[in-house]
Amino acid sequence: MRAFRSRHFRRLNAVVGIALIALATLLALTGLVHTPYDPLELDFAARLEPPSPAHWLGTDQFGRDVFSRLLAASWVSLAVSLLTVGFAVTAGSLIGTLAGYFGGWLDRALMAVTDAFMALPGLLLALAIMSVLGQGQWAVVLALGLAYTPNVIRVVRGAVLSIREKEYVEASRVIGHSHLHVLLRHVLPNCAGPLTVLATAFFALAILAESALSFLGLGVPPPYPSWGGMLADARSYFSIAPWLVIFPGVAISLTLLGINLFGDGLRDRLDPRMAAL
Amino acid sequence: MAAGQSAPVGRAERTLTQNMVRYVLKKLLLSIPTLLILALVIFALMRAIPGDPAMMMVGDMADPDMLQQARKEMGLDEPYAVQFLIWFGDVLHGDFGTSRMTGEDVLTAMLSRFAVTAKVVLIAVMLAIALAVPAGLYAAWRQNRPGDFAVVLAANLFLSVPSFWMGMLLILLFGVTLQWLPTLGYVSTGENALAAAKYLAMPVLSLVFIEVATITRMMRASTIEVLRQEYVTHARAKGLGERTVLFRHVLKNAIAPTVTLIGLILGSLLGGAAVVETVFSLPGLGRFLVDAIYARDYAVVQGVLILVSAIYLLVNLLVDLVYPLLDPRVRL
């Protein structure tokens, strides 16, 4: 009975997670296609208006519609985070596979550099890279992507190391398949589980980091909207326009909550050791 | 056979202190290559920045002779390998140069800002540990019962609130609506302890929530793992009370992974909680780095990066040193 209830609770969590992610995706796609107002259009007659039927989430200090800006920002934040994770997973899998599969001096050299990169906290490394690349969303993708790559390398290398010794890999080599064939057909598919769990965790981290960088003014340049940037602007209007502080944060938090709940469910599924708990 | 017999004797002759010293030395030696590669990476990053540091120093209107002179003084006409050695030597002597923004010595400026960051972060992390370790232990003990669900739900919620937004919500509640606490700024503890505490309360709180969530989740997971061990069943079977089982047998074995996590959190937060420092206008290390990036103050950027990575390595080294005390299976 208790096991049933707990599984029920877990499944409910995962469903809520997926629903929140779907909602965020829907809003982001809406933001890409159509927004009620132009998110960049200034309207000085309607500055700092509280939420109303005309402006569902109110307007900001330039009279821009907060709901429209939030929609557009959703698209930017999700796209930047997805690209970041895509970059880290691709680069990390490539390097991790090379290091783990071939081993030897290549492995040692790659891992020495990876360890050094991991001696800097992720956001700090991203800030360091951004000081070279400059600001903007592409710089964010590259900087965060590079910052997360070492972790992916470690996970993929570990998985590859354990798969490399399996009989089916040896068998595949013995019957004359190339290294590339072995890697693509046998090694990489078997890394998919840990990689998916990791990618989900990094997606949440990327959204958090992207909003943090935008909040610090290093991300999407103004006047283009981003969740973090909207919060940064709101800092001057705490007492007169609290809606500016609340809505972008709600968007970030609900998206993060969705990914975290979904990630927990995913880990239960893909990691049998955790599923038994 | 002779070797097999002499080895245990040799080990017995070494005292615990000697073992500890050897362990520390080994860990220190192992972190040297990492630090070296890291220094190379930071050096390469700084040289990869578009623009000529000499030109930035003398101004781009300077005549070519002056520029050449500045290059020579800064060592920029040397090969990269020599430049790196000179730079690394300076760093080892604690000479990080002068800040372009403030004209201060970079090391002095960094240390005074680090003090601010460290105060906020250490209080926040200690509070988080005090809340999260019991919460995680409790949730694991009540696994799959309402108490556990409540803790897991709260942890998931807290985990989803970025620290800077939490900070802004706190300002909205305690600063603007209730007007209990000052919203921006910083008073050093030496000047006025009560005022300092008031200024620190919200920055600390905004970090606490998310860290409580992270630590609780880790503590819960590792406790659940320990609770399924046979020695726990054994301890219960021989009639020990739940309290004794939990605190004497479970907690000791479950805390190790959490300590590692705390080390990582501490290391990354001490490197500057830039966003929280920005929300509350605290003169901390993270905000210093961001300002330096804006101002293209590269002496400060590279100085902060080196200081932060050194702190990060040091904190993780400390964790490695605490580990054998918690888990005797980790051999010195």
Q: What is the string of SSEs of chain A from the N terminus onward?
A: HHHHHHHHHH
Summed up, the helix count of chain A is 10
Rg of chain B, rounded, reads 25 Å
Give the oligomer, counting copies of the same chain as homo and different chains as hetero: heterodimer
Instruction: Write down the Rg of chain A.
Output: 22 Å
The number of strands of chain A is 0
What overall form of chain B do the CA principal axes indicate? globular
- Beta percentage of chain B is under 5%
pLDDT average of chain B, as an integer?
Answer: 82
Class per helix and strand makeup of chain B:
mainly alpha
The profile of the biggest β sheet of chain B is: none
The proportion of strand residues of chain A reads under 5%
Name the poorly predicted regions of chain B: 1-10
The helix count of chain B comes to 14
Distance between the termini of chain A: 15 Å
Structural class of chain A: mainly alpha
Q: How would you sum up the global shape of chain A?
A: elongated
Mean pLDDT of chain A: 85
Structure described in brief:
The complex is a heterodimer of chains A (277) and B (332). With 277 residues, chain A is mainly α.
What does this structure look like?
The complex is a heterodimer of chains A (277) and B (332). With 277 residues, chain A is mostly helical. Chain A has ten helices and no strands. Chain A has helices spanning 2-33, 66-102, 104-118, 122-133, 137-164, 167-174, 179-215, 227-234, 242-270, 272-275. In chain A, helix 4 packs across helix 5 and helix 7 runs parallel beside helix 8 (227-234). Chain A is elongated and about 75 Å long. The mean pLDDT of chain A is 85. Chain B is globular. Mean pLDDT of chain B is 82; it is low at 1-10. The chains are: A mainly alpha (277), B mainly alpha (332). At the A-B interface, helix 1, helix 3, helix 4, helix 7 and helix 8 of A face helix 2, helix 7, helix 8, helix 9 and helix 12 of B.
